[in-house]
Specification:
Elements (H helix, E strand, L loop, with lengths): L20 E3 L6 H11 L3 E2 L2 E2 L8 H4 L2 E4 L2 E4 L13 H10 L7 H8 L46 E7 L22 E4 L15 E3 L10 E2 L3 E3 L5
Parallel strand pairs: 6-9
Antiparallel strand pairs: 1-10, 2-3, 4-5, 6-7, 7-8
């Protein structure tokens, strides 16, 4: 886990073991999240609504609107990843489906696709992903899966992890199932986005306030569950 030629917060490179888990093949879509909102409504937690439909980028990328008392994805965007979801809104959805958000260690293991040492999801060059020039989300699964059958692990949208962020955490991280720091002010984001050109390496780390004021227009998530948990 980590990289010796990346940013300072990716060091030191260290070996981590995580227990078996299942991860969603795809990012949570607008249609998925609209179903959730129609059960619970757009509640406020952590000082912000789960889905930001009133922020500065709402006109651009938020493709879920409320009409006649129902949350409805914009036609043609049902299968795009939901964006502008706060960390609290992502956690609430994961709990609703009986899952959870991945730890940062789980996310990186999954992104590497069963390999170790490569710089990008597909090896040592970035290709076959929603990168430079598209300026928009694309339907989930539009690009090839990685070696573990997971789609859009990088470059589409940033993905929330469960961990609090600490740039020096790797120096003291436990070697088995690291949960992240006990507290903090920002939550970990992984995977980069089509908007952030230098964020597509699998070891790249970022973070934002869990109410998501900065990365909100390209922030999404996927869920995991423990392998020994029954459906």
């Amino acid at each position: 886990m980590g990289s010796s030629d990346g940013e300072e917060d990716e060091r030191p490179v260290h070996t981590v073991q995580v227990d078996a888990f299942y991860m969603d093949r795809h990012l949570v879509t607008n249609a998925d999240y609209a179903r959730f909102l129609n059960v619970f409504g757009n509640r406020r937690e952590g000082g912000k609504k789960w889905l930001d439909t009133d922020g500065p980028f709402s006109w651009w990328l938020c493709k879920i609107k409320k009409k006649d008392g129902r949350f409805i994805p914009k036609p043609g965007y049902e299968n795009h990843p939901v964006v502008k979801v706060s960390w609290y809104g992502a956690r609430a959805y994961a709990q609703w489906v009986g899952k959870r958000l991945p730890t940062e260690a789980e996310w990186e293991k999954a992104a590497r696709g069963g390999l170790a040492g490569q710089k990008y999801v597909y090896g040592n060059s970035i290709h076959q992903a929603n990168v430079g020039g598209f300026h928009a989300t694309t339907p989930v699964g539009s690009y090839p899966a990685n070696g573990l059958g997971l789609y859009d692990m990088v470059a589409s949208v940033w993905q929330w992890c469960s961990d609090w962020y600490d740039p020096e955490y790797y120096a003291r991280s436990p070697s088995r199932n690291p949960p992240g720091p006990e507290s903090g002010s920002s939550k970990v984001l992984r995977g980069g986005s089509w908007f952030h050109k230098d964020s597509w390496r699998v070891a790249n780390r970022s973070a934002d306030d869990p109410i998501s004021e900065n990365f909100c227009f390209v922030t999404s998530f996927r869920c995991v569950r423990d392998a020994d948990k029954k459906d």
